[in-house]
């Protein structure tokens, strides 16, 4: 019986991927496709156009996983070395597939052109391998069985690679047939207001017991700007029971993390808050200084946000805080623009002029300059009032550069609105 394929590695080939002008975007698509048939991507690497290096990386991957996918390096030129390197590592002879040569020649003839002799390189296939049709390009893919493992070579251009891999992972495809009946089942939860280490401190005593379960649940904690994600993965052939186990496990984490857990369905915080505003029939307005409109941008990036976003003011200068929001200049002189009294006054002015149900103000020092001993870079004051609830004013100190300070400021505001609406 053939051993099912469960693990994979990707090697992206091309010296251009080692520079700063090109990114390897294929690996994301490959990981997604393989996950649909229960194959876990364990590693991905990038290799320049070096035959020996490609062969060495490939040989190492073949010792670790069940499936190796190589992308790129299948063109007609001398620096397209993937097929040669794989043949070297497997000790296979390259032979010309006349059917491939004929197809390539026909592609050129349809354009009224003779086929350059160099394109014959694309018809060279390791002996015993299977060529994979490429309807969108001249370079065919290659499929090789190697000691119960599978090797797939695919062209680099996404418009060529994607349909070819999708076909391999479809029900009748070669990868899907070798993947077995088990699938990877996943659930997630998103948190905000806690650092990655704080989330792990709370979650670790819970998820540590799952490692010894049958089947085990794999837990991944991922810090992204403004939030920490917890992903749970379980391998099983039984979809219903796997989902039941994962939902129960996620529920334990949600209970432990409390208010910090804001989503279990993949929505980001602006959408979560927007949905809460819509459900309650509330509108929002914002007065922003250091964030320069980023809060309203994040909210209005969500389709349908016109139902709850009323508008706002970017009062970056002290003059506009006074002229547009009615902040007393004496308050700014006495306390500075980055102060709780000024943030509160910005909210009061916003309510008077726009009249939204939720009024928010942000003022701070985003950096890199402008900080003082009393108010260093990263000092941000937020204020908000929801309908008839008491005014809430908070002073924060956010780490990081200008972009991170601005993002964390808006995340803190959104999280505070969420908690106030929940309470």
Number of helix segments?
14
CATH architecture of the largest domain: 3-Layer(aba) Sandwich
Q: From the alpha-carbon coordinates, what is the Rg to the nearest angstrom?
A: 28 Å
Beta-strand content = 15-25%
Q: Strand order of the main beta sheet, please?
A: 2-1-3-8-7-6
Tell me, rounded to a whole number, the average pLDDT: 95
Describe the global form. elongated
**Main sheet characteristics:** 6 strands, mixed
Helix content: 25-40%
Total domains, how many? Answer: 3
The named CATH superfamily of the largest domain? MoaB/Mog-like domain
CATH fold name of the largest domain, please?
A: Molybdenum Cofactor Biosythetic Enzyme, Chain A
Question: What CATH first level of the largest domain would be assigned?
Answer: Alpha Beta
Number of strands: 17
Structural summary, described in words:
By secondary structure, the protein is α/β, with parallel strands linked by helices. It folds into 3 domains: 7-179, Molybdenum Cofactor Biosythetic Enzyme, Chain A (3-Layer(aba) Sandwich), CATH 3.40.980.10; 183-263, Alpha-Beta Plaits, CATH 3.30.70.600; 269-422, CinA-like (Maf protein, Alpha-Beta Complex). 39% of the residues lie in helices and 24% in strands. It contains 14 helices and 17 strands. The chain has helices at residues 26-36, 51-64, 82-90, 98-110, 158-169, 174-179, 196-207, 239-257, 269-280, 294-300, 318-325, 329-335, 340-353, 402-422; strands spanning 7-13, 40-47, 67-71, 94-96, 124-126, 130-132, 141-146, 149-154, 183-191, 217-224, 227-236, 261-263, 284-288, 309-314, 358-364, 379-386, 392-397. The protein has a 6-stranded mixed sheet, sandwiched between helices. A 5-stranded mixed sheet has the order 14-13-15-16-17, with helices on both faces. Strands 10-11-9-12 form a 4-stranded antiparallel sheet, sandwiched between helices. Strand 7 (141-146) and strand 8 (149-154) form a beta hairpin. The longest helix has 21 residues, at 402-422. It is elongated. The relative contact order is 0.08.
């Amino acid at each position: 019986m053939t051993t099912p394929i469960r693990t994979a590695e990707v090697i992206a080939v091309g010296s251009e991927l080692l520079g700063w002008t090109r990114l390897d975007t294929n690996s994301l698509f490959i990981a997604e496709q393989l996950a649909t048939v229960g194959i876990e991507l364990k590693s991905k690497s990038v290799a320049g156009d070096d035959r020996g290096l490609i062969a060495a990386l490939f040989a190492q991957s073949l010792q670790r996983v069940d499936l190796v996918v190589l992308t790129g390096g299948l063109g007609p030129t001398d620096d397209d070395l993937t097929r040669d390197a794989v043949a070297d590592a497997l000790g296979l002879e390259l032979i010309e597939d006349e059917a491939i040569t004929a197809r390539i020649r026909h592609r050129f003839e349809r354009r009224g052109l003779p086929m350059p002799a160099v394109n014959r390189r694309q018809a060279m296939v390791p002996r015993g391998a299977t060529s994979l049709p490429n309807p969108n390009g001249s370079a065919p893919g290659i499929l090789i069985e190697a000691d119960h493992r599978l090797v797939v070579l695919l062209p680099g251009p996404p418009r060529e690679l994607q349909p070819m891999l999708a076909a391999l992972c479809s029900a009748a495809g070669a990868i899907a047939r070798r993947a077995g009946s088990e699938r990877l089942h996943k659930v997630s939860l998103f948190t905000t207001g806690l650092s990655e280490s704080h989330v792990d401190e709370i979650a670790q005593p819970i998820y540590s017991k799952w490692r010894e379960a049958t089947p085990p649940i794999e837990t991944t904690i991922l810090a992204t700007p403004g939030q920490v994600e917890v992903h749970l993965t379980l391998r099983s052939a039984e979809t219903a029971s796997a989902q039941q186990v994962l939902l129960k496990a996620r529920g334990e984490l949600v209970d432990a993390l409390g208010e910090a857990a804001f989503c279990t369905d993949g929505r980001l915080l602006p959408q979560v808050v927007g949905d809460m505003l819509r459900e309650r029939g509330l509108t929002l307005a914002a007065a922003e200084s250091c964030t320069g409109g980023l809060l309203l941008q994040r909210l209005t990036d969500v389709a349908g946000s016109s139902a709850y976003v009323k508008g706002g003011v970017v009062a970056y200068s002290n003059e506009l805080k006074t002229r547009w929001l009615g902040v007393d200049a004496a308050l700014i002189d006495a306390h500075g623009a980055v102060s709780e009294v000024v943030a509160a006054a910005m909210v009061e002015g916003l309510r008077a002029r726009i009249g939204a149900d939720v009024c928010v103000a942000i003022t701070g020092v985003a950096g890199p300059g402008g900080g003082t001993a009393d108010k260093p870079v990263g000092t941000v004051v937020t204020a908000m009032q929801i309908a008839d609830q008491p005014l809430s004013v908070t002073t924060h100190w956010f780490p990081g550069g200008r972009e991170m300070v601005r993002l964390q400021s808006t995340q803190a505001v959104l999280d505070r609105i969420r908690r106030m609406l929940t309470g």
